């Protein structure tokens, strides 16, 4: 669930895209408890009648403290209470932190997509394609967890 930006200006452009729904659907800022300090975001996009694609991006300085798991858990609760039957997420093969978040949320690993997506380029300028896992959970699995 990584989306890398290389400058402040790129970050502003990405935020403006998210404010308008953009390709990520609905985005929600994640702040530290008792603070307005934003440390990340979670997002959900409806894919069909009752399925959502979800993801999260967090400041690396706040990793390893359970913030992503806590925020995603609340997002899942909201989506399942709303109308979701199935929620899925992607995690790059080298993004162990996001894989662990998916597993803590009770999601099952459904498959590995080889050379699925590119966020960065190789030194020669060609796209670097990352291997990506897909995780998912059904509403009935969430209720039983």
UniProtKB/TrEMBL annotation:
What residues does the N-acetyltransferase domain cover? 1-134
Protein's recorded name: GNAT family N-acetyltransferase
Report the Gene3D superfamilies cross-referenced here: 3.40.630.30
Source organism (scientific name): Aminipila butyrica
Q: InterPro entries recorded for this chain?
A: Acyl_CoA_acyltransferase, GNAT_dom, N-acetyltransferase
Q: Which PROSITE patterns match?
A: GNAT
**Pfam families given for it?**
Acetyltransf_3 (PF13302)
Query: What PANTHER family does this protein map onto?
Result: GNAT FAMILY, PUTATIVE (AFU_ORTHOLOGUE AFUA_3G00765)-RELATED-RELATED
As recorded in UniProt, coiled-coil segments are none
The protein's UniProt keywords, in alphabetical order, are:
Transferase
Q: Which GO terms describe its molecular function?
A: acyltransferase activity, transferring groups other than amino-acyl groups
């Amino acid at each position: 669930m990584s989306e890398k930006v290389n400058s402040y200006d790129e970050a502003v452009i990405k935020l403006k895209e998210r404010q308008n729904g953009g390709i990520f659907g609905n985005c929600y800022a994640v702040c530290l408890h008792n603070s307005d300090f934003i440390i990340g975001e979670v997002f959900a996009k409806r894919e069909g009648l009752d399925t959502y694609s979800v993801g999260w991006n967090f400041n690396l300085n706040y990793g390893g403290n359970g913030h992503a798991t806590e925020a995603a858990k609340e997002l899942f609760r909201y989506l399942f209470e709303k109308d979701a039957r199935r929620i899925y997420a992607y995690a790059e093969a080298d993004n162990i932190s996001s894989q662990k978040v998916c597993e803590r949320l009770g999601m099952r690993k459904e498959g590995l997509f080889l050379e699925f997506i590119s966020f960065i380029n190789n030194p020669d300028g060609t796209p670097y394609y990352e291997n990506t896992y897909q995780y998912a959970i059904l509403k009935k699995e969430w209720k039983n967890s």
